[in-house]
């Protein structure tokens, strides 16, 4: 049974073969997108035993997603198909510079119909870590209830909970996100926000206030992602800056945070220290931005070792 379990909505990702507006695009490359399955694939490529479950439409796109994720070595035995609702689709609009525009077609998708009663308690209970994102509770009321049920199962059975807020303001307002995501953060063992996300959630960029508020929430370990500057590890009321890795060219930042989570979680289940795990997480995230696509830059263990051996760590500040 998997050491790391995660779940969420994955979609077929269609990316034009040329830079420019989707209005003018003619041909597309097909891939997959979905924060949780990205993490699962990333962890599997690093050699972890990982499971991902979801609800997919009983359609060609759903079949494609299942085969692709399963083919990466991820356990998909708890995935279910829904013949009444479709698999979601997303389009990525490439720009000459900067992050791409992403368009989602997921309203009324099969995953949004997932019910808390459908969770496999034994599957979650046997895992060492349950990884969650803030995308799921934004999709529907039933998905929100399902997340709280999954956390309750994990905590009752001694399974650690990892949480990346992954804020998507196309799905809900900042006020709605703030209320739910901070509550979920208070229930997790590892909290993995980006610095911009934490600024939005806590309504300040003052790091001392961040420290105070996170202590009040009772989060044991927080890793605050700082992009190319690495991350801040907050544990027992103290910050430690973990340097990042510089790359020659940033191609696409989408998926870097998922790679960060995969590197961190894989390291934790292997018994590495928090500092070591954060360093590996930084390296995986840095490598991801040198590739187009959500999963293309996720490394194997050997690829990561080569990258860390030749990369340049950011100096301590």
Polypeptide structure, described:
With about 325 residues, the chain is of the alpha/beta class. The protein has one domain (about 5-10, about 35-60, about 75-80, about 115-315): Ribokinase (UDP-N-acetylmuramoyl-L-alanine:D-glutamate ligase). It has helices spanning about 35-45, 60-70, 120-125, 135-140, 140-155, 175-185, 195-200, 205-215, 255-270, 275-290, 300-310, and strands at about 5, 10-15, 30-35, 50-55, 55, 80, 90-95, 100-105, 130-135, 160-165, 190, 220-225, 230-235, 240, 245, 310-315. The strands form 4 sheets. It has an 8-stranded mixed sheet with strand order 4-1-9-10-11-12-13-14, sandwiched between helices. A 4-stranded mixed sheet has the order 3-2-7-8. A two-stranded parallel sheet has the order 5-6. Helix 1 (about 35-45) crosses helix 9 (about 255-270). It starts with a strand and ends with a strand. Residues about 310-315 have low confidence and may be disordered.
CATH fold-level assignment: UDP-N-acetylmuramoyl-L-alanine:D-glutamate ligase
Name the overall outline: globular
CATH architecture: 3-Layer(aba) Sandwich
Continuous helix count:
11
Classified by CATH, the class is: Alpha Beta
Report the major sheet: 8 strands, mixed
Counting DSSP E segments of at least 2 residues, the number of strands comes to: 16
How far do the termini sit from each other? 42 Å
The CATH superfamily bears the name Ribokinase
Provide the low-confidence segments as ranges.
311-317
Structural class: alpha/beta
The share of residues in extended strands comes to 15-25%
